[in-house]
Structures are given as C-alpha cells and as structure tokens.
Amino acid sequence: MREAVxxxxxxxxxxxxxxxxxxxxxxxxxxxAGVLQALVERTGIDPGQVDDILIGCVGQNLEQSATPGxxxxxxxxxxxxxxSVTIERKCGSGQQALDFAVQGVMAGAYxxxxxxxxxxxxxxxxxxxxxxxxxxxxxxxxRYGDLVGQGVAAELVADKWGLSRSExxxxxxxxxxxxxxxxxIGAFDREIVPxxxxxxxxTADETIRPGTTAEKLSGLRPVFGTDANRDxxxxxxxxxxxxxxxxxxxxxxxxxxxxxxxxxxxSLRPRARVVGSAVxxxxxxxxxxxxxxxxxxxxxxxxLTVGDIAAFEVNEAFAAVPLAFQRELGxxxxxxxxxxxxxxxxxxxxxxxxxxxxxxxxHLAATGGRYGLQTMCEAGGMANATVVxxxx
Length: 392
Hints:
Elements: E1 4-11, E2 15-16, H1 28-43, E3 52-56, H2 68-75, E4 84-87, H3 93-107, E5 112-120, H4 137-144, H5 150-160, H6 165-184, E6 195-197, E7 200-202, H7 214-217, H8 227-232, E8 249-259, H9 260-265, E9 272-281, H10 291-302, E10 309-314, H11 320-329, H12 342-345, H13 352-367, E11 371-378, E12 382-390
Parallel strand pairs: 3-4, 3-5, 10-11
Antiparallel strand pairs: 1-8, 1-9, 2-8, 5-8, 6-7, 9-12, 11-12
Helix pairs in contact: 1-2, 3-13
Family: Belongs to the thiolase-like superfamily. Thiolase family.
Domain Thiolase C-terminal: 269-389
Keywords: Acyltransferase, Transferase
C-alpha cells in the first residue's frame, strides 16, 4: 500500500464571523480559492494534475450551496477537468476531508489531491440550513429522549469531570495568551495566506485577544442556564460562557496530499506523513466526549502511546472538551493546544480540521517534535483522531 504525504498546507487568517468581521465582505468561494491558488504558487504543481478536491463544509446552503470546492477551483483558475466534493461530518468535516484524501492516495485512487475546508459563518449563519426542522426524528427521540445542543452538552461534560468555572476561564485565557505569543514571534506566518477584503489585505488572525485574563472572563454570564434547562438538569452549576467557548469565525484552509512516489517524482519535499486515523462515536447526549475513545483507538492502531506525542490538538469547541480529555488521558499542559485553539483562533466549522492540522504540522516543525495528534468532537457524539509524523 502506498504512503500518503502532506506536501504543503495553508490557511486564511481567521476573521470574526459577524457583520463587520475582517473577512465578512469576502464570498466563501473566494476565501477557498485563495488557499487553492497559494498551494499551486508555493509548490509549483500543475493544477491540472490534481485528481480531486475534498472540501469540508457544514453550512451547505446559501453561498456555500453549489459545491464550494468546485466553484473555488474555477475561481482559482484550475482547469475545468478538476472535480470536487463536499464532505460534512460537522465540526470534523475538514479533518475527515484529509482522512479521505489520505485513504484515496493509499488505495491508489489518487496521485495528487487537495483536502481542505471553508466556512463563512458571517454570511452563512450556523444552523441556517436546518431552520426550525427536527433533524432527529421519532426513532432517535424514542431511544434517547430529547437530545441537547452542544452548549448544554459542554455543561454536562464540565459537570461529569468536576470542572470548575475558574478552570474553564483559566484555560480560555491561556488559549488567547498562547495564540498571542505564537503570533508575536511569527509562528503563524508560514501558514497564513493574506486575503483581500474591502480593498485592504487581511494578514493576521482577528480573533486573538492578547489582553484576555481569567478575571475578565469571570465576569461573563453563563449562556445556557435557561429555565427549561434548569428544570431538566437542576443539579448543574451553569458555567459555560461565550468566553470559554470557541468563536464563530470565517476562514478556509487547504492541504496538498500526494503519494510519496509522486512527491519524489515532482522533487517536492513532504512536510508530514499521516501515520493513521480513526473515527468513533460516543454518547450523543454528552456529545463532546468522543475525542477520548477516538484517541485511544488511533494510538492503539498505530502502536504509539500518549508519551510519544509531542503535541495534541484537541479542538476547543468549549474549554470543557480539552480539559476532560486531559484528565482522562494524562496529557501534560505544555503539549495540549500549545499555540492556542479555537477559543482564541476561532472555529470556522468545516474549515477547522484543515486549519488545525496546518497549525499542528508547522508547530511540530518549529519545535522539533516528531508525532502530533489531532482530534475533534463532532455533533451527534462523534470524533475524528489523526496522527501525523512531521518530516520538516
């Protein structure tokens, strides 16, 4: 079986996903087109040799409804022969796109493939595709009762693992500080592709707040302690706020994946290889806990231990997620989201998996780390987990 390698990876800056955000004026197709163009320019590949473009996107409606990867390839000047497909595994969509790309290369279906993601949450609001519809149906309700939203699930996770409000806020402040420190030393420069928005170039993440402190975050009110939720979960001390949750964000990211043989043929030096991946489901009520068993599964599959991993990227959908992960697996503070996560850098849903992998590989290269592990909780109680080996 062939070995799949990642040759290069890029992302846009992260923009606040609201009216007036740094990237809100940019159509999502153009966000994605920019990173596709950058991959071609940086590697010198012939875009006509790309066998497929796999794009994660959660809000597949409005401006993201027409197979955004296909439209982005056309906008980026790729030959019309290059196809695309949209992948949706909720927050893990971009990571699943990468996993499918790697599997396609290993199976011989692809020689060269792009995996990535896009989400303009300012222009395609979260949940707008669902509207008022019931996505669960009577069968699920009969089995589990009324499932809850992710914010309430985060409260249930914090309660189960005994996480205090101060722990959530301390962690969140640290995410902003780590991201600010990384940005200050140029740690993100290699991965960010500037975006032209409203006549100005956006070159840095808008989402990082360097002055964030746990004290400031402690003044925010919990969001999900409604009367209905309190009636159902009366034992919970509500503590999830906007400050200890991921940010609504605009962004895109893409990775160039190919066989090791094709990289050698094109005289391209791989940045990383994918060692293995796994996907797993867990309790749909707690919803956010699947990264824990998915990580155990992938580590067992590839024959590594927690101690072998130089950096863990656990998507910061809510601070409770990486903190529960840390308690279960015994991960050291310094290797858990070492340059900040979605609380500081934002969470553009379908693009996050590709963005996080881009940042992870660059961090490993900068610090001399060998193995990195990325995992993301996903709606419905699922998670992807992927292990990569940095090659430089």
